[in-house]
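call fold(seq) -> tokens
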Amino acid sequence: MPPNTQYDAVIADNKGSLLSINQLASRLRSADVIVIGEYHGHHGAHLLQSLLQSALYQQRPQQVLTMEQFTLDHQQELDRYLAGLSGESELIADAQAWSNYQASYRPLVEFSRSRNIPVIAANAPADTVRCVGRKGEVYLDSLELAERNQLPESPFIDTPAYRKKFFDALGKNHSPGTDARFENSYKAQLLRDNTMANQAIRAMQDYPGHQVIHLTGTFHAENHLGMVAVLEKKRPDLSVAVISPAFWQPGDDFQGLVEAHRRKGDFLYFLQPLPQEYTDNERHRNAIMEQFRQAADIACD
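ret:
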């Protein structure tokens, strides 16, 4: 029963009933928005997303794909590719696609392109997110009007539970007034979440009657927090379903896994753990510092 390879996923509802991809799609038929959380770069997560997109399409061909993996300032480049006006390498370069685009997201974009399914860039512009993380929410006041109007009118909507989750993940006190650096990091996270929720709402307005499939990192969606909480605050009339991953460690019991993770989503899928990235702590620290050095090259003045 455990997943046999990195490509396998064991799917269940949050009560512990096992499901096939087609059974999951059937359960999701009436949902307005389906949020599929992922572990970035996990083969099993991306295969599940692709298979589920196809299964959902068989039931409701009126579909829109919204993606955290593209930022909204690159929608034009994405549209050019979907219209056949540019090639894949041009898309990757011009839209600053993620490094794992070809291995992870190509199947979903190609499925959409071949069936004229709209693909919506859902994330906030990367430089804007970085600068909010550096200078705080006041940075948005310095944007040109056209840039600011792309973003949600209220870009920092959150919930106490999400704030606690975010600061717990950092090992920090989550009370208001904590260190400004971490407050700014939280505001940057909220900007991503609010922008993704806003783009899902816009997709439903632009394509009435379509089912929206949204791809995002699981932290942004599990427990109906993050972008899902914003979406449900703004549009409580919508039916939103969350599908969340969890790791099946050697020796785990299925029912125990479901019990431990049932609050993460309306449906769950269990994957083999990813390989350990580093055993050398110094190399790990150096890699993290290199990321910070790259981010420091962005001018926020």
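The longest strand covers residues 63-71.
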